[in-house]
Design a protein that fits this description.
- The chain is 52% helix and 14% strand.
- The chain is α/β, with parallel strands linked by helices.
- It has three domains: 206 residues; 91 residues, Elongation Factor Tu (Ef-tu), domain 3 (Beta Barrel), CATH 2.40.30.10; 123 residues, Nucleotide-binding domain of ferredoxin-NADP reductase (FNR) module (Rossmann fold).
- The strands form three sheets. It has a five-stranded parallel sheet, sandwiched between helices. A three-stranded antiparallel sheet has the order 1-2-5, with no helix packed on it. A three-stranded antiparallel sheet has the order 4-3-6.
- α1 packs across α3 and α4 crosses α6.
- The longest helix is centred in the N-terminal third of the chain and has 34 residues.
Length: 436
């Protein structure tokens, strides 16, 4: 059995077993209210508590899940789980209040005001309000208007939501404190999730950075708004980094501690140094050119399964769009690549082709075919429609395809690959959607 299959089977088993336990606890607890509204509200509360623990595990960056499934796909799951938490967080108190209002024969608003005077209930309502704020800034329209740094900062509110949710659960959840077994179950569930979060989001990164002591070795402008940062440190070969992966980068003293950005390695790791290349879009990336040589670097990772290890065959197609060329360039340099390689690099103009000289040299060394596709997208210039993509690469269905670029471009390419019936296991995409 493959590692992805084992990981997916473990996830499915975890979800099914826990849902069975939750329904058993709900039934054992007996009627939680005097009407259907109250019963539904209490059941939704159990779902909500479990969904929150799942969210914690999805953002804990568990190495097994990252290697088997990929951080990008896990982040997509986190997004959908987040909307599930949102609806449960809205519906749970709504049904509970409706249940009490119907039982007491008073208005919804009057019941809401009465219940909100109880501290545990008030904390739960505050948690719901914070969830609404986080979801509001995660909607695609709002997300486009926020910098990555601002979006990430707002998502830190989720840790406050966790604390408020646990307190609310302790004091208000009758199904949580029904007996010693239910208490052991819920505390065990939360302990497992929070321990995973603390271990892989704090303890492991702190130990790793204390060991490797990374510093800025050089800052090299690549173009007007693109810069490469070379990083050195101790025993970097022990990081186990691979071409195509990314780190979460912090630069203490240069940016606030909470500002973190996912930047891919733009060169294959050699055990002595790492290189990231970024376009000046957000606050952190725009300020990289001002980093001082010798500045401390805090890196969390490596993450991602966008590596040659995922390849099914020997023929490869690498597709890059804009600054998405960075992991593609590192893959092209990977000694493990081999085989027949084609590279498609989509940019508006030749001047926007970052790292083009390096790509050309690597293509010559490896005997790869490099095509730079320029020009604005228009009805007459759409290189990634199914027909045009097939014309560029006639044997595309026999190749592993690696795609990295802006979300609209990557989505369009993935649609074309599905239309061309490229087998799903041969498609590898990096979308750079990252949970905080």
């Amino acid at each position: 059995m493959t590692q992805p299959f084992v990981a997916r089977a473990a996830i499915a088993t975890y979800l099914v077993v826990n849902l069975i336990v939750i329904h058993a606890m709900f039934l054992i607890a007996g009627p939680p209210a005097h009407n259907l509204f109250g019963q539904v509200g209490r059941l939704l509360g159990l779902y909500l508590a479990f969904a929150m623990t799942v969210q914690v595990l999805l953002v804990a960056r568990l190495p097994l899940l990252d290697r088997a499934i990929g951080m990008d796909r896990l982040t997509g799951w986190h997004r959908w789980a987040g909307f599930t938490v949102f609806w449960l967080a809205v519906l749970h108190p709504t049904f509970v209040i409706l249940g009490f209002a119907r039982y007491d024969r008073v208005s919804f608003l009057a019941t809401f005001l009465t219940l909100s005077k109880q501290v545990p209930v008030l904390l739960g309502l505050i948690a719901v309000a914070l969830i609404v704020v986080v979801v509001a800034v995660s909607v695609r329209i709002a997300r486009r208007r926020l910098s990555y740094e601002a979006w990430h900062a707002v998502h830190l509110l989720l840790y406050v939501v966790l604390l408020l949710g646990i307190v609310h659960q302790i004091y208000e959840g009758t199904a949580f404190t029904l007996n010693i077994l239910t208490q052991i179950y819920w505390w065990g569930l939360w302990t497992f999730a929070l321990a995973a979060l603390i271990t892989y989001r704090a303890i492991v990164p702190l130990m790793s950075n204390n060991r490797h002591r990374m510093r800025v070795a050089a800052v090299v402008p690549e173009s007007g708004d693109v810069v490469s940062v070379h990083v050195t440190g101790r025993d970097l070969h022990l990081l186990g980094a691979k071409a195509g992966q990314f780190f979460l980068w912090r630069f203490p003293g240069h940016n606030p501690w909470w500002q973190v950005n996912p930047f891919s390695l733009s060169a294959a790791p050699n055990g002595r140094s790492l290189r990231l290349t970024a376009k000046g879009i957000g606050t952190t990336s725009a300020g990289l050119r001002d980093l001082q040589v010798g500045a401390r670097v805090f890196a969390e990772g490596p993450y991602g399964s966008f590596t040659i290890d995922q390849r099914r065959g020997t023929a490869t197609l690498l597709i890059a769009g804009g600054i998405g060329v960075t992991p593609i360039r590192s893959l092209l340099e990977d000694p493990a690549l081999g085989g027949d390689v084609i590279v498609l690099y989509r940019v508006r103009s030749g001047a926007d082709a970052v790292l083009i000289g390096e790509l050309q040299n690597l293509a010559r060394e490896r005997g790869a075919r490099l095509h730079v596709l320029t020009g604005r997208t228009s009805p007459t210039n759409q290189p990634f429609t199914p027909a045009n993509l097939h014309a560029l690469v006639p044997d595309i269905t026999a190749r592993d395809v690696y795609v990295c670029g802006p979300f609209p471009l990557t989505s369009a390419i993935l649609t074309s690959l599905r239309t061309l019936k490229v087998p799903t296991p041969q498609i590898h995409a990096e979308l750079f959607r990252l949970a905080p």
